Amino acid sequence: MLRTLESIVRFVPDIDTAAAWYAELLGSSVRHENPQYAFIHVDGLTIGFHPADSKCPGGIGGTTVYWEVPDIDAAIRHLEQRGAVLHRGPVTTDFGARAAILLDPFGCTIGLNQGSARSRALICGG
């Protein structure tokens, strides 16, 4: 029934500022469906931005999406230079991967994962 991940929606205080930040970070451009929803599209994934409200306040209490990176320390430095703040980690998982969570300038989490040969083999069924 559930086939592929279609989109991620970030609930943020200012959709245009957040969308522009992510568009620059990921080399995309901002588009709008309507005044309440901006989005970017990168490598088959849509990242949407909707105003935070009482039903979906955004921030660190929700789901964290993890991005695979080749060098977690370099990725952390890059994101920190763009205004993100390290929130947790980096830690080494039991499978040997390294993981960290940062907060973007809008209070949402950005997960980073630097997989290891063991973690990729175990997670991918190898």
Keywords:
globular, 126 residues, 2,3-Dihydroxybiphenyl 1,2-Dioxygenase, domain 1, 3 helices, 2 domains, alpha/beta, 4-stranded mixed β-sheet
Question: What would your notes on this structure say?
Answer:
- Strands 1-4-3-2 form a 4-stranded mixed beta sheet, covered by helices on one side. A 4-stranded mixed beta sheet has the order 5-8-7-6, with helices on one face.
- It is α/β, with parallel strands linked by helices.
- It folds into 2 domains: 1-58, 2,3-Dihydroxybiphenyl 1,2-Dioxygenase, domain 1 (Roll), CATH 3.10.180; 59-126, 2,3-Dihydroxybiphenyl 1,2-Dioxygenase, domain 1.
- It contains 3 helices and 8 strands; from the N terminus they run E-H-E-E-E-E-H-E-E-E-H.
Please sum up the structure shown.
The longest helix is centred in the first third of the chain and has 12 residues, at 15-26. 23% of the residues lie in helices and 37% in strands.
Say which CATH homologous superfamily of the largest domain is assigned. Answer: 2,3-Dihydroxybiphenyl 1,2-Dioxygenase, domain 1
Strand content: 35-45%
Overall body shape: globular
What structural class do the secondary elements suggest?
alpha/beta
